Amino acid sequence: MKLSIAVALWFAFAATAIGQSTSLPPIGKDAIQNPGKIIEAYDAFTDKSKKELLIPLAGEMLRGVHLYVLTTFNGKVLKEPGQVVLMILATSEKATHEGDKLFLLVDGERREIEPTYLARPLEGLDTQLELFIVPDFLPPDYIRKLSLANQVKGRIGSYLTFEVGKQAQDLLRDFVLKLDPNSPTANARQAEARQLKQLSPEAACSVFADVEGMQTRGYKQRHEAEYGCLSFPKEFGDGYPLKNNIAYYVSGSAREVKELKLVLNVNIAQQAADAHTILSKCGELLAVRAAGVALPDKIKDSILAGKPGEWRIGSIQALLHRSDWPTGRGYDLKFIIK
After folding, report:
1. Is 85 exposed, middle or buried (0-12, 13-18, 19+ CB in 10 A)?
2. With 0-12 CB in 10 A as exposed, 13-18 as middle and 19+ as buried, what is 97?
3. Would you list the DSSP string of 206-225?
4. Spatial separation of the C-alpha atoms in residues 317 and 184, rounded to whole Å
5. What are phi and psi of 22, to 5 degrees?
6. Which among 134, 123, 41, 26 is positioned nearest to 84, based on CA atoms?
7. Which DSSP helix (H) or strand (E) runs through 105?
8. Are the CB atoms for 54 and 36 separated by under 8 Å?
9. Span 317-333, pLDDT tens digits
10. Where are the domains of the chain?
C-alpha cells in the first residue's frame, strides 16, 4: 500500500525544517511510492536535483519503521560529493515518541542522537507518522560506514527497535555510489567486479540465503566436470494450475563459478508486469552481492520490459534471454551474469 500524499508533503516540510533552502525540488513522494529504489530527478522549476531513497526496515508501510536518505543540489549534475539528510520514519496507531532519543549501534559503536521530531496524522488511514531527523548533514563516508558494517541496529526511545539488514546495506551502498562515484566504495566495487571468478561456490550459492524460498541446496557435482546449485522455484501471485515463479542457478567447475542465472517463468500473462519487477529486484541483488556492481538503469529497464539484451559492466557480462513457449501459454526470462 502506498502512503498518502500527506506523507510526501510532510517530508517536504521536514526538509525545510532542518535548514535546507525553501526552494526545493519535490521530495518524499517518489521515494515513498517506490520503496527500495533510488530516485534521481531534476526539477526545472527550482533548478535543483534530488537523490532519495526509502528503505523499509521493519513491519509494513503503515505500521513499521523505515530509513530515508536524501541529498539535493543545484542544477542537473552533482559536481562534488553530496551531503546527506538521514531520517527514521515510523508509522503506528499513536505518536508516542516525542522527546525520545535515537540510538545507533554500528558494529558495537554506540551513537546517541537527539533528533528533530515531527509528527502528523495521516488523514483517513488511522495512522500517525513520526519523523526522527538526524540534525546534522552527513558525509557520504558515514553512509558508506553504515553500508559496510557487520551489524547496524537502532532504537528509538526505550522499545522501538530496528535493524539495517543486508539488503538495506546493499541499497545504501548503491546510494553512496550515486553521491560520489570516486568514493572508496566505488573503487571497492570496481575491484570486486574484476574478481567475479574468485567468488567461491559457497558464496555464490548463498547470494539469496536470506530471501525466503530462494535458498539453494549447496554446491554439488551434477555431471563429470559440471558443478552447481539451484533453488526451488519460488511462486508468487495467483494462478492455476501454475503460478508465476522464479528460481536461482549457479554453474561452474569444482572450484570455480562460471555462471549465475535467474529464471523467471511467466505462466500468468496478466501478472507479467509484477513478475518482471520481481526479476529486476532479484537481478539488482544478484549484481551487488555476487559481482559487486550496481545494475545500470538500462538493464533494469530491459528486464521490466522483457526485452532481451547483452551488456558489459566492467569485466562482467550480463545477458537477458527470452523464450516464448511453443504452447503459446507463457514464456521465460533468463537473467545471466558471467
Report:
1. buried
2. buried
3. TTTTTSTT--B---EE-SSS
4. 23
5. -75, -10
6. 134
7. strand 102-106
8. yes
9. 899 999 999 998 999 99
10. 5-192, 196-337
Please answer whether residues 303 and 296 qualify as being in contact, where contact means their C-beta atoms are separated by less than 8 angstroms: no
Q: Are 171 and 55 in contact (CB under 8 A)?
A: yes
Question: In this structure, what C-alpha cell is assigned to residue 245?
Answer: 515463479
Rounded distance, CA 232 to CA 215, Å? 8
Cβ proximity of 333 and 276 under 8 Å: yes
Residue 249 and residue 230 in contact, taking contact as beta carbons nearer than 8 Å: yes
The three three-digit cell numbers of residue 18, written as one number: 532542518
pLDDT tens, 175-204? 888 886 555 444 444 444 444 556 789 989
As a three-state string, the secondary structure of 34-84 is CCCCCEEEEECCCCEEEEEEEEEEEEECCEEEEEEEEEEEECCCCCCCCCE
pTM above 0.85, yes or no: no
H-only helix segments in the chain: 5-17, 29-33, 140-148, 166-179, 184-193, 201-205, 272-286, 297-305
| Identity of residue 34 | N
Q: What are phi and psi of 125, to 5 degrees?
A: -115, 0
pLDDT for 2: 47
Strand partners, 68: 54, 87
Cβ contact 33:103 at 8 Å:
no
